[in-house]
């Protein structure tokens, strides 16, 4: 289900973290704490060192919330400085700590220093931002094209790659409520309950309370 990370990639990420820690500011956040938001004047780029970050979209008029994606260790995220019109301001996009986490914050001036001293690392940061954008685009595709079952199944498989997932003889154990899964899949809590029952009957998951065992052969539809 989840491919192991090659050794050389792990070593490069360690080098990247070491260099960025020396240049940027290392910040710690408790679960649920806000980290950054779209349109903020102090826009920055962040590298996750430990824990996981959630990218949330909130409809301020309807009081509805959607989890666009998660950012795992060694992944990069950030928002651009942007003027937003009244219609655009209806949607609030922000990053918050999914778990207790540590991130490295890089401001514009620090990125310029990185460009001069370590252009190879700046390229990797830019690649990380591109991957972050592609994850968001993939999620848009899921919402538009996948069935509720496909969105929920894919969301469960995605959760297995986050640091708070636990290995299990049958696969991975993840902890998430039906409300949290509904935010990830863009559907109602009731729909999550029906689909989870189907997946359990098909032998793809085992669910008890907020804990779900995602079996090795569960497809990311």
TrEMBL record:
CDD domains in alphabetical order: CAP_ED
Domain Cyclic nucleotide-binding: 25-113
Keyword DNA-binding: yes
Keywords: DNA-binding, Receptor, Transcription, Transcription regulation
UniProt xrefs under InterPro entries: cNMP-bd_dom, cNMP-bd_dom_sf, HTH_CRP, RmlC-like_jellyroll, WH-like_DNA-bd_sf, WH_DNA-bd_sf
Pfam family, one: HTH_Crp_2
Annotated Gene3D superfamilies: Jelly Rolls, Winged helix-like DNA-binding domain superfamily/Winged helix DNA-binding domain
Signal sequence residues: none
GO biological process: regulation of DNA-templated transcription
Ranges where the HTH crp-type domain occurs: 146-219
MF-aspect GO terms: DNA binding
Protein name in the entry: Cyclic AMP receptor-like protein
Organism: Aquipseudomonas alcaligenes (Pseudomonas alcaligenes)
């Amino acid at each position: 289900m989840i491919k192991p990370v090659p050794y050389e990639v792990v070593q490069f990420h360690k080098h990247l973290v070491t260099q960025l820690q020396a240049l940027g500011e290392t910040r710690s956040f408790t679960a649920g704490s806000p980290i950054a938001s779209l349109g903020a004047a102090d826009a920055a780029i962040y590298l996750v060192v430990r824990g996981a970050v959630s990218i949330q979209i909130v409809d301020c008029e309807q009081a509805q919330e959607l989890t666009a994606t998660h950012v795992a260790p060694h992944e990069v995220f950030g928002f651009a400085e942007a003027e937003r019109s009244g219609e655009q301001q209806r949607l609030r996009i922000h990053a918050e700590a999914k778990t207790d986490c540590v991130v490295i914050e890089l401001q514009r001036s620090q990125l310029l220093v990185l460009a001069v001293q370590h252009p190879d690392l700046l390229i990797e940061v830019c690649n990380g931002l591109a991957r972050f954008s592609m994850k968001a685009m993939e999620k848009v595709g899921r919402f538009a094209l996948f069935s509720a079952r496909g969105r929920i199944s894919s969301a469960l498989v995605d959760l297995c790659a986050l640091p708070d997932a636990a290995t299990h003889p049958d696969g991975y154990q993840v902890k998430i409520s039906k409300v949290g899964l509904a935010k990830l899949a863009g559907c109602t809590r009731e729909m999550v309950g029906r689909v989870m029952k189907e997946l359990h009957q098909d032998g793809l998951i085992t669910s008890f309370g907020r804990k779900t065992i995602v079996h090795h052969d569960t497809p990311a539809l």
